[in-house]
Specification:
Pfam families: DUF6518. This protein is mostly helical. The protein contains 10 helices and no strands.
């Protein structure tokens, strides 16, 4: 797919013409990073439906397993943390036909997941966690923008490397913070090595399957480590989540 050029004789006011040129310039840069795959309407709809189904299933499982009395507490700990959702959303985004479809899929995923999770919470458990609902609703609202950007992780160039490093940064940072998750020592302290192992597996999976050129992980990983050190040093997650 070639670059798009704005016709020189296009009848537009000067300021509008400059805006259009700017938009086309950004578009041309983006398609050099990664070109969208052609897809039919049926394929797009199917892709969105799959994202909704995954959201419903994971939302229901996360809520059901939220009770450590009936399930191993490791499932509760995974579902209650940001990492697993970033991991799933990243995979859904990068393996979409286009950035626009990635945005729609992720909004559908989080919308269905959160709807099932909190409908179960309020209707079955008769509990209304207002603060959590507001926070995750904001996350769902901004998720399409994140997904649109994340789609370019499987492209080429520095921008793709930085984007690829972002979900790994989240996993590295949250995984490191697990060291302090059960201090002072409490009954679930034994879960820390297991949780760290799961986070390591998710990181390895992303490093192996996101970049088309596998050697790129030699660039992506150092970027993620540097960003993680910044996140940890400035306690960014603690500030966001009020910890």
């Amino acid at each position: 797919m070639g670059s798009i050029h704005v016709p020189a004789k296009l009848s537009l006011p000067a300021n509008e013409f400059e805006k259009l040129e700017g938009i086309m310039g950004i578009y041309n840069k983006l398609i050099r990073i990664r070109v969208a795959n052609k897809s039919t309407t049926k394929q797009k709809v199917f892709s969105i439906v799959i994202a909704i189904i995954i959201g419903v299933i994971l939302g229901l499982l996360a809520k059901i397993m939220d009770n450590p009395s009936y399930f191993n507490p490791i499932f509760t700990e995974i579902g209650d943390r940001l990492g697993i959702w970033v991991f799933v959303a990243t995979l859904l985004s990068v393996f979409s036909y286009s950035p626009k479809l990635a945005a729609v899929k992720i909004f559908a995923f989080f919308g269905s997941m959160l709807t099932v999770y909190y409908v179960y919470t309020t209707m079955v458990l008769h509990f209304f966690p207002e603060r959590e609902i507001i926070f995750w609703s904001i996350c769902a609202a901004v998720s399409p923008v994140c997904a649109y950007i994340m789609w370019y992780a499987r492209g080429s160039g520095l921008f793709s490397n930085i984007v690829s490093a972002l979900p790994i940064t989240v996993l590295l940072s949250e995984g490191f913070e697990l060291c302090n998750a059960y201090l002072p020592v409490h009954t679930h302290y034994y879960l820390i090595p297991w949780l760290m192992g799961i986070y390591l597996i998710m990181i390895v999976i992303l490093l192996l399957i996101i970049p088309k050129n596998k050697i790129r992980f030699l660039i992506i990983l150092p970027i993620a480590i540097i960003l993680s050190l910044i996140v940890i040093n400035f306690n960014i997650f603690g500030r966001i989540f009020g910890e």
